[in-house]
Amino acid sequence: MAFSDIVGQTKAKAILHAALTHDRLAHAYLFFGPAGVGKEFTALELAKALNCQTQEDDACDQCVTCRKIRTFNHPDVKLVFPTPSDFSVADMNAFLQEKAADPTLDYHVDKPMSLSIDTVRALQKEAAYKPYEARKKCYILLEVDRMTVPAANAFLKTLEEPPSHTQFILTTSNIRGLLDTIVSRCQAVQFTPLSAEEIEHALIASHQFDPAEARLAARLANGSLGEALKAQDHQLVETRNQALQIMDAAFSNQAIEFLTYIEKMGKTRNRNLIIQLLDVLQLWYRDLMMMKEFDDADRVANLDQLDRIHRESDRLSMNAVMASIQIIETIKADIRQNVNVQLALTVLLLRLRKARLLS
Ligand SMILES: [Zn+2]
């Protein structure tokens, strides 16, 4: 891995590369932008580039230093992150191991968590010492908006007078949650959502996605590679095929088949899976809209179903397609509000069918 392995983020890369080349790094960087677009990955690459034994302004990823940083075994490069109150040392090690195996994986815990003043004090004590072996000691602080107010105030003192041998790299997906005084003492570098093409390419090149799966995942990911990677085990093509089968049954009056599907779905306890099914279905109608508007296969996500997209986009009016997208949106909101899944899906299919008949 090196700077060139960072997906997208041309502007952020240019800023950092120029700073490295001219040896004019800010004492502290704040990488901000949505989750899953490469902030944490870039922070690690920067720490490597600052200390690599063979390259001046990039990381070789081969030397002992780069390898130690990548596996979180370097004594001078530390990852600091907020934790839930019940986070154990074993949880922490498990996360570091996962991240070492896949550095594109962003830190995420589905629980309230905070970065405490104790953690900041320990960091301050340690940061005062000279590095053991690195040129620059690096502290990468993840999701710094989770700092408690006392922790942030304590950390502010370090940012005001940073030790000269130390580089701070902070990341946040919620810059508004940070104290202004912290933001103003860092050089802020913005990370932007990735394009569907950038994500699709990365999924195929570095994450062993099959092309049809990558195309769907990239277009459902809202600009976040991290989000697309979550779909890895979800078999989106399979989900899409299932959605098409349910529609076929509903639209062609195969009532028993249709009810069997809906009943099966209704038993699913995982609402996220149902939402994903609806996302996939919405993407299907979005494809029909694209095909009607532009007649251009490049804009279609379900490229492996091009014949069917052509057929349906010819059959349905633009109004029917737009109405269908809106119907799915409403049902998604209902499902998030905990309505009965079986009922919601039945209503969905009846409304989609009605929209179709009006075409
Ligand atoms: Zn190296």
Question: What's the SSE blueprint?
Answer:
Layout: H1 10-21, E1 28-32, H2 39-51, H3 64-70, E2 77-80, H4 89-101, H5 117-127, E3 137-141, H6 149-160, E4 166-172, H7 180-184, E5 187-190, H8 196-207, H9 211-220, H10 225-230, H11 236-251, H12 255-266, H13 271-294, H14 306-315, H15 318-336, H16 341-357
Parallel strand pairs: 1-4, 1-5, 2-3, 3-4
Helix pairs in contact: 2-3, 5-6, 8-9, 11-12, 11-13, 12-16, 13-14, 13-15, 15-16
Zinc ion binds at residues 52-54, 59-60, 62-63, 65-66.
Structural notes for this entry:
By secondary structure, the chain is an alpha/beta fold. It has two domains: 3-192, 3-Layer(aba) Sandwich (Rossmann fold), CATH 3.40.50; 234-357, Zinc Finger, Delta Prime, domain 3. The protein contains 16 helices and five strands. It has a five-stranded parallel β-sheet, with helices on both faces. It is elongated, with a radius of gyration of 24 Å. Bound molecules: zinc ion. Zinc ion (ZN) is lined by residues 52-54, 59-60, 62-63, 65-66.
